[in-house]
Design goal:
Largest sheet: 9 strands, mixed
Helix content: 25-40%
Order of helices and strands: EEEEEEHEHEHEHEHHHEHEHHEHHEEEE
Number of strands: 17
Shape: globular
Length: 461
């Protein structure tokens, strides 16, 4: 049976050309038409019509940094692809880009197969993969082109975590290997050698709780690593993406490199725009609430938060992603109660990113800005535009209808992320995803899932 044409009628359409009133026509898995002013009433016969008056109609949001169903060296993340993409869709995100990760001794093909096995057939939102490289050798080098053929054009390396990090020469060789097809390397920028030593020193001073985490990973550890990456990019001419930038010092390194022509993309996350390191002192009922915020890089000083917010307003930030890497406070993070170094690093956010960003910047940014930061920027950067990230005829029918008048409170009790807390408990959100379509199917309404699972793998070029 042919799919019924769906019409999103009477909304404010956020398009590449600007924002205007009109209708969006969905046929099957594609946007068939974008109609300024709207269709005539006679053209609606036989269509399923959704009244979206008073709403912004966006291309589906893209979260380009997630870790679903992943072993991190300490534990498995709490969210599977099933629960994580369902939560993402409830918040308006229709595509995630997850980090498939090669462990030491594993091939890239084995890592990709493992991630497909976890994701295929389970997802509400669409999914693409970056390939994280932890074992760089000649065999891995020879697999890079096969990854490109499989639709992966972005890769990741680490300057921290002993079981993942590459040295500078290896990182340079990865950049050289991906440059011929203009691949992009996403890098976790912290100086792992310094972090290891500072962790030891902080712990030996008797600081064992969550407050030890930011003390052991100061801003200088991030900025030094970002500076090193900028020089490696300058040396090789390859594109790089600084993920989860959290400090003013790190921003200064990116700015300086861009002035010298380095092709450096910049990502930050809601936690670094909203929360600061005072959170590590939270006690809660059991004295360990600060562990909720143990993520790497850590939450920073209020001055860093202010600097990052200014960089968003200045257009320096290319995308706001989440680094969604969820662990339960009880049963996972509390294993590090006596030693902050044993607290699994990471926090949830994939469900709430659009509401957090649009609420906190509502007085300073408009729908076109939100579209760039939450959708189009990632689509362009990671080879999905205009299939994704555009409200245009021929683009995929991934659409978020956003009600800016909605008012609601973020809380763990009502979220769909499979984790027992949210860092944003009690946050008063302005705006909510009223309707979310993935591949033309309605997957969420007013923050609740419909049960549809049309999410598909997105091969990129």
């Amino acid at each position: 049976m042919a799919a019924v044409t769906k019409v999103l009628r009477g909304g404010s359409l956020v398009t590449p050309e600007g924002v205007f009133a009109g209708d969006v026509v969905l046929e099957g898995q594609r946007i068939a038409d974008v109609v300024p002013g709207g269709l005539d009433a006679a053209q609606l016969d036989g269509c399923e019509v959704f009244d979206v008056a008073g709403c912004w109609v966006f291309p589906g949001f893209i979260d380009a940094h997630t870790h679903m169903q992943c072993w991190t060296g300490m534990d498995w993340t709490a969210d599977s692809f099933e629960t994580g993409t369902r939560a993402a869709a409830c918040g308006g995100t229709t595509t995630i880009v997850d980090y498939a990760t090669q462990d030491r001794g594993m091939t890239l093909t084995q890592a990709l197969d493992a991630w497909h096995e976890r994701a295929d057939g389970t997802c509400t939102a669409n999914y693409a993969f970056h390939m994280a490289i932890a074992d760089w050798n000649e065999r891995t080098r020879q697999e890079v082109d096969a990854m490109r053929d499989a639709g992966i054009t972005s890769f990741k390396t680490y300057f921290a975590y002993d079981h993942l990090r590459l040295d500078d020469a290896q990182t340079m060789e990865v950049l050289e290997a991906i440059k011929p097809f203009d691949g992009i390397l996403c890098v976790h920028c912290e100086n792992g050698t310094l972090v290891n030593e500072l962790q030891r020193r902080v712990f030996e001073r008797g600081i064992t709780g969550p407050e030890g985490h930011p003390l052991s990973r100061p801003a200088e550890c991030e900025a030094e690593a970002i500076g090193r990456l900028m020089y490696l990019s300058r040396l090789t001419g390859a594109r790089v993406n600084v993920v989860h930038c959290s400090t003013e010092l790190g921003l200064e390194e990116v700015r300086a490199a861009r002035e010298h022509g380095v092709r450096a993309m910049l990502e930050t996350c809601p936690q670094y725009l909203l929360l600061d390191d005072a959170r590590y002192l939270e006690r809660g009922e059991d004295g360990f609430a600060g562990a909720k915020y143990v993520m790497s890089p850590p939450l920073r000083k209020p001055t860093d938060v202010a600097a990052l917010r200014r960089s968003v307003l200045a257009g320096e930030v290319d995308q706001i992603s989440t680094d969604h890497c969820s662990f339960n406070l009880h049963g996972q993070k509390d294993r590090g109660r006596a030693d902050f170094r044993k607290i699994p690093n990471g926090g949830p956010g994939v469900e709430h990113r659009p509401a957090l960003v649009m609420t906190t910047f509502e007085d300073d940014l408009g729908p076109m800005d939100f579209c760039r930061l939450l959708s189009t920027g990632a689509a362009r950067e990671f080879g999905m535009y205009p299939r994704k990230g555009a409200l245009a005829a021929g683009s995929d029918a991934d659409v978020c209808v956003w009600d800016p008048a909605a008012r609601w409170t973020i809380g763990a009790a009502t979220q769909h992320q499979a984790v027992d807390y949210t860092p944003y408990e009690g946050f008063e959100a302005h705006g909510r995803a009223r309707l979310v379509f993935v591949g033309g199917e309605l997957v969420a309404r007013d923050g609740e899932p419909t049960g549809a699972k049309p999410g598909a793998y997105v091969a990129r070029s």
